[in-house]
Amino acid sequence: MKPLQELEFRLNGRNVRVEVLPDETLLEVLRERLRLTGTKSGCAEGECGACTVLVQGLPVASCLYPALRCQGQAVETVEGLAGEQGLQLHPLQESFIEHGAVQCGFCTPGMLMSAKALLDKNPSPDRTEIAQALSGNLCRCTGYVKIIDSVEKAVEKINGTGPAHHGSAEK
Amino acid sequence: MSRVHVVGGAMPKVDALDKVTGKAIYAADRLTQGMLHLKVVRSDRPHAQITGLSLDRAKAVEGVVGVWTADDLPGVRSTGPRAKDEPILCWQKVLRVGDPVVLVAAESEPAAREAAELVEVQYQDLPPILSPQEALAPDAPQLHPEGPNLVFERRLVRGQVDEALANSAHVVTNTYRTQGIEHAYLEPEAGFTHWEGDQLVVELPTKHAHFEQNELSKVLDLSVDRIRVICRTIGGYFGDKQCLSPAYYAAIASKITGRPARMAYSREESFFASTKRHPYSIEMTTACDVQGKLTAVKVDITGDTGAYISYAPSVMSRTIMHAMGPYHLDNVEVTGRQVRTNNPTAGSMRGFGVVQLGLAYECQMDLLAQKVGMSPEEFRRLNFLQADDTAPWGQQLSSSVGLTQCLDAVLAERAQIEPHPLESDPDYAVAWGLAAMHYGIGLTGLPNPGVAMLRVAPGEKIRLTVGIGDGGQGSSTSMVQIAAETLGVDPGEIQIICADTALTPNSGPSTASRITYVVGRAVFDAARSLIDRVGGELAREWGAQPDFSDGMYRLEGKELDFKGAVNLALNAPIAEQGAFDPPTQALDQATSQGSPYATYAFGVQAAQVAVNLETGQARVLRLLAAHDVGRVIHRVNAEGQVHGGAIMGLGYGLMEEIVLREGRIMNPGFRAYLIPSAMEVPEMKVTMVECPEPTGPYGAKGVGEPALLPTAPAIHNALTKILGQPVKKLPVKAEDIWRLLSQRAEK
After folding, report:
1. pLDDT band at B58 (very low <50, low <70, confident <90, very high)
2. Does ipTM top 0.95?
């Protein structure tokens, strides 16, 4: 058995310390060692996006990401999206519920994290930019339409622009 | 107090909050101290005799708890959703690449993986049978000891087809081919098992918990009451997720060792282990008279069911009832057969043997329309089944037939749409294609009762229990809506419990687009019974039986809502069951005439497709969908079904194919097997045509499978217009288009 190594990083705003094997992925550490199972394993080859989390604000496929590379870094998962106490839903979460973006839910955590990474970088994306940002996250249920709608509606909510002010937006 | 109206609205899904916060529990999320990790060693041969097994090196790996073969299985050695012909572990022969042979259990995932790699299986290869044609050849070996390679054949016969064909003005004959595809649910199959006292708890995603309980009883040699099956959150199923799965292997390990176990397939293993959509070869002759009225259809269909029977008979039974499309015909002859080969097993997938036929019958419609000199839409309008029509299978249809309304809706949308910029781009050819469908709701000519229970107690939430899990389509939400609407209560007053054999009734499988119509009606009936029961209790307080309407009990100026009545009149909990079995009539064995389904969903879609003339790349620009699903229970979820179904249909039409070489899947993962991403999504417009079904809950029918059916045929018909000839196979790849474009340029 290979020796365990100590890993310290910030996870959803809190410092965590955990012992991991050198070849463990961030996904394995999150799910099996830290019991944060919101992040899903869909393909283990970085193709489906179900395991997307943010490392230093950037979306990564945690199924391919060596856990030890997170040493000292900030990691965000779906469990942290509703604030530290988990009580204040992110506008994306509210919008996903309200506009029917959630079906089986397996792609949802990864979708939300990719969408958050987009909005953190570009607060006013158009539909094409939203689709591009989500193109690495597969969904077999929704046909993506309501997911893209939901991100668009969340943008309006965050920016305080309702549909009334949105007449000129490109579709 | 005003009446609660939730049916037809769009309340938040009952499970959405858990799903957006990461709290929803899927089987692979479960974990407990001391659980076993499992691996299955699978065949890498399409057809071979097992001549020996070397297990010692695997057993010697540190942390290995068991290395088991068929001889170690606790109960029956074979299983299957219908025929019991699939070995849980093969003992004599393997019939496909991916057949399970050895099960390894270990203390850790790495130990299980290492041991599985050290298992050696010795084979003597046998010639593989890789097509139905080879399998049906007179000198072909019988692949499975249980029966001949021809596993099923059935005919539908009405009128005098040959005579009608001979007397028709226009006749079109073509052969069509469709491919095997992957369900590609995002959640790979998984299972978690553990003992609670002397009961084994099996947690898994499944479309029928009570089936699994019964089947596992035989697999484990345990009485049914010692097995509790809990359906965890289902990460998509699309017709699959029933019978042999990681939960079965986990249950076997738990039975042998007494310990908890967990297993999840990798994506690659899921490709090799799971069933596919049946590849079909379809020969179709369709004829009409000089005015364009259809006169006859003759169809011959051969399906490749792969190594095991799975759902082959059920799929083909449904195929032949839908082989002629949603058209009035007096002369029909359909023959459908399913054939065993050494290819991957085909099974139950959304569209269940109907989506393949859409390619054929809808292409035939366009080709005949052209011969007659009519537009595709007017040709269809002339021939559509109508309300109260007699269908080609001899059934008098109900009043809920909204085909013409669907066509009108799509044409109205198309007339309004702005020209697409690519229409004026000389590098592209752009065309619209049209396709229609019908789909029988519920199992084909079989009893398929839905059952639901409602329980009330003073001061408690109303508890609704149903035997079906929610695959993401929103069935739980629809069930809550139906109960809330009927009882006149806020949906928040209702707690739903799904698919747990210890707590819920058997509602039948989540299949055949039947949940809303069949189980929803059972919920409605349970609610009506409960209203009567509570009304009876209230009568003791009020002195006479009250009326119930608009959510209120009323008697001589007194009124009370349902919850108020429960709190006033009940001292103890009461429960009522609702059960609904759709009225069907078994099919005649020789002619398949009968009433196989109580009601049908209908739909029409139009696809605008652009082809890059240089590369042959096709792109769907717009998709207009109109579906008659009966009364809509949940507007947003119903639309979501159409969006998701249509995009799945787009993948079927243009992208997806299980590529085989000598029976082996060459693209077992999302790197090489491409499903549509957000970038492939066209502009979509969905219209719900609501022709109420009198027997459905609030007039509802179903939408899950119908959504998918017309998309690939509509895309194919658009491509036929662009290319001047039909491709006649799926998927239509850029190279197919490019080849036909080049041929046309040469002419």
Report:
1. very high
2. yes
State the average pLDDT over residues B335-356.
Answer: 98
Residue window 142-201, chain B: list those with CB within 8 Å of chain A. Answer: 183-188
CB pair distance less than 8 Å for B640 and A105: no
* Residue ranges of domains in chain A: 5-80, 91-159
Claim to verify: residue B118 and residue B257 sit in the same structural domain: yes
Residues 259-298 on B with a CB inside 8 Å of A are: 264, 266-267
Q: Do B678 and A82 touch (CB under 8 A)?
A: no
- Non-local (6+) Cβ contacts of A48 within 8 A are A42, A107, A110, A137, A138, B186, B267, B670
Backbone angles phi, psi at B130, to 5 degrees: -110, 5
pLDDT at B692 exceeding the cut of 90: yes
Residue B655 in any domain: the answer is yes
Locus of tokens 């529990």? B25
pLDDT per residue as tens digits for the range B361-419 = 999 999 999 999 999 999 999 999 999 899 999 999 988 999 999 999 999 999 999 99
Placement of tokens 């007699």 in the chain: B390
Q: Do A139 and B186 touch (CB under 8 A)?
A: yes
Query: Which tokens belong to A147?
Result: 């997911």
Residue of chain B minimizing CA distance to A43: B267
Q: To the nearest whole angstrom, how far is the Cα of A123 from the nearest Cα of chain B?
A: 20
pTM of the model: 0.97
**B228 lies in which domain range?**
32-126+189-264
So what CATH class is A91-159? Answer: mainly alpha
Regarding whether B244 and B111 lie in a shared domain, the answer is yes
Domain assignment present for residue B154? The answer is no
Q: Which residues in chain B are closer than 8 Å to A78, comparing Cβ atoms?
A: 20-22
CATH class, A5-80 region: alpha beta
Both B539 and B512 in one domain: the answer is: yes
Name the closest residue on chain B to residue A133, using Cα atoms: B678
Residues B390 and B415 in one domain: yes
Nearest CA in chain A to B14: A97
Give B576's strand partners: B454
Alpha-carbon distance values, B141 to B136, B145, B320, B345, B524 (Å): 9, 10, 28, 18, 53
Note the pLDDT of residue A167: 36
Q: Where are the alpha helices (DSSP H) in B306-402?
A: 312-322, 355-372, 376-383
CATH number of the domain encompassing residue B651: 3.30.365.10
Band of the pLDDT at A84, cuts 50, 70, 90?
A: confident
Q: Band of the pLDDT at A165, cuts 50, 70, 90?
A: very low
B152 domain residue, yes or no: no
Instruction: Give the pLDDT band of residue A163 (cuts 50, 70, 90).
Output: low
Q: Is there a domain that residue B166 lies in?
A: no
